Amino acid sequence: MNLFSKVYLTLRAQGRHPLNRKSSLRAAWDFSVAQVAARLVPGDVCVEFPNETKLLVSPKMKGAAHFIHPGLCEFEDMAFILHFLRPDDWFVDVGANVGAYTVLAAGVVRSRALAFEPNPTTFRSLALNVHLNDLAGRVTFLNLALGREAGVLQMTEGLGTENRVAAS
Fold it and tell me: What is the DSSP letter of 63?
């Protein structure tokens, strides 16, 4: 897919996002401004999340930068967490990434969470977000992969949220 198609599809998705439906052109503009501005900031960006929680994301981390605007980017899945999880329920986040779902579950809903993130670099982002929201008492976070067998995995590096198990 060429660059023009990617940009067009991304902006169209922003306009169709449930939080942006009233003004799709404004949403596409706001998204574009936020993405450009975030890339001009040296370092990570602190994004407001529901109920006074925050998410620290790297604008250069593809896959995490979409939390900058409109915030609840995976709206249906995130709304499910917010509406059906109850305080003190257990939430298990496998492949927690930077911890967006963990922050929603433990920080907004006040559930307890167990978060697993195998990539060491991304795990540091998860840990920062747990501490940023003062959730260490509600969240156990582990730098581990879960699988059928015990063993050691090699992970790719430098791909942000798109790191994965590397081929042997």
Answer: T
